Amino acid sequence: MFKKFSSEDVSAQNQVKASVQRKIRQSIAEEYPGLEPVLDDILPKKSPLIVTKCQNHLNLVVVNNVPLFFNIRDGPYMPTLRLLHQYPNIMKKLQVDRGAIRFVLAGANIMCPGLTSPGGALDDEVGAETPVAIMAEGKQHALAIGFTKMSAKDMFHAVDIYEVRRTINKGIGVDNMHYLNDGLWKVCHG
């Protein structure tokens, strides 16, 4: 998504009205209940909220010249990795094994075997089409943010203690939306 993103991809920036700002805040609060106590610090009511429209139907929510959230078309808002590193418990997490790290950091989508192998970890409560943080085996911070293509139960399903049956366990499990060192990361840290 942000592999070749730069500030040149921005087509319009608009400071939004108070009613639109409330709607965005409410949408973010519903999607990420863990952010509720600090939402006023992240999105201050008095600071101007700017929605930046970019190519490919991408919107960035910017406060004080810092992109904090993004969404595609009218989908759910997802935090940038910079914000996720500050507040690591706001999203559900999936973990990839060590072998998948270099591919994820190159922008590849997360495949089911990378999540279901011994180094990977799944949260059974994650449903299909849910924004998730992608963690790496042995690492503290998230390396990507993605959007699940199928539920965790479809990726990996335990029948009982002795037998583990994978219901699908192939194909793309998570679409990689934003990863360390991509265009959005460089804009945030540039």
Automatic annotation (TrEMBL):
Any coiled-coil regions, as ranges: none
The organism's place on the tree of life at top rank: Eukaryota
Keyword Metal-binding: no
Keywords, alphabetical: Cytoplasm
Any single biological process term in GO: formation of translation preinitiation complex
CDD domains (alphabetical): MCT1_N, PUA_MCTS-1-like
Keyword Cytoplasm assigned: yes
Compartments it resides in: Cytoplasm
An example Gene Ontology molecular-function term: RNA binding
A GO-annotated cellular component: cytoplasm
Pfam families per record: Pre-PUA, PUA
Domain (PUA) ranges: 92-181
Stated name of the protein: PUA domain-containing protein
Species assigned in the record: Ziziphus jujuba var. spinosa
